[in-house]
Design goal:
Layout: H1 2-31, H2 38-44, E1 49-55, H3 58-61, H4 66-71, E2 76-78, H5 86-98, E3 102-109, H6 121-124, H7 135-141, H8 147-152, H9 156-160, H10 162-165, H11 167-174, E4 200-201, H12 212-223, E5 227-232, E6 239-240, H13 243-251, E7 256-257, E8 268-270, E9 273-274, H14 276-292, H15 294-300
Parallel strand pairs: 1-2, 1-3, 3-5, 4-6, 5-7
Antiparallel strand pairs: 8-9
Helix pairs in contact: 5-12, 14-15
Amino acid sequence: MNKFLKWSLQTVLIVIMLLVILDFGYTKIYKQSNSRGKIDKVYNSVPTTYDVVILGSSRANNHFVAPMFEDKGLKTFNYGMSGSHLFEADLLLKILLERKYKIKTVLIEVDLSLSNDKRADAVASKFLPYIHDSAVIRSHFESEADFNYLYYIPFYRYIVYDSQIGFREAYKTISKEPSSLLQNLGYYPLDNKKKRKMQNDITNLVPLPNNKYYEDIKQLCKDNAIRLIPIMTPMCEKTKGLVYFDKVKKAYPEIYNYENAVVQDSYFSSCGHMNDLGARKFTEIVINDFFINAKNAAKKSNTIY
């Protein structure tokens, strides 16, 4: 019996040691990378001064053509992340500030994402390699139900989110496999030819009042003298439940409703995402309204701090 207990204890200790070693190794790999995705680019790059930082979900990632801002002399990067919620946008802004990036304007897509205050695991997991290194990331996850597991159990986060930060991604990272996520200054264009069925139903969506992550973003911008431009982006005209955008405007009067700025199906890849032609048309409108005509933008905006 004593031998069995001794063997069991030794086995447990060996497993713990292996987990600690693996955790250290994986974390070191991710802390040395800045070319696989937008999160590691922010975390591991030299701080930059931006005129415009773009945040949001795929409806930011696919809708704001960052090089068009640059053509107007505005240092810009599109940090929109497909599949993300406001949980991740809020955290990414916090990291940008924690890492001493200088930002003049935050242009953030906030519309459908206002309907929830949950994290999107596929994107949120990309922050986890840095959870022991960043007080901001640790604090952001502290209220999550699985925080203790993610923070205190070595290698747990890499096992649970293997498809996002496990062996395959670690290998691609250490081998410096190219990624399309950082091309075009973060803007990801959708094909003009491929079209999905132009139907969508958002009837059941309801914007949450005082969405905590959106409110946090507003406060961060205020505290750091950053101009905030919150905006709703277009959906195809066949979408059911477009009254949702009116509900957003009623709950958050400061958010600009550009849902119908582009409406023709020819400008959409799917009902919720514009193709490259639509994105360029929309981006031109946004640049003209908020940056070229500065006086007009100042009159329209009540979110410039």
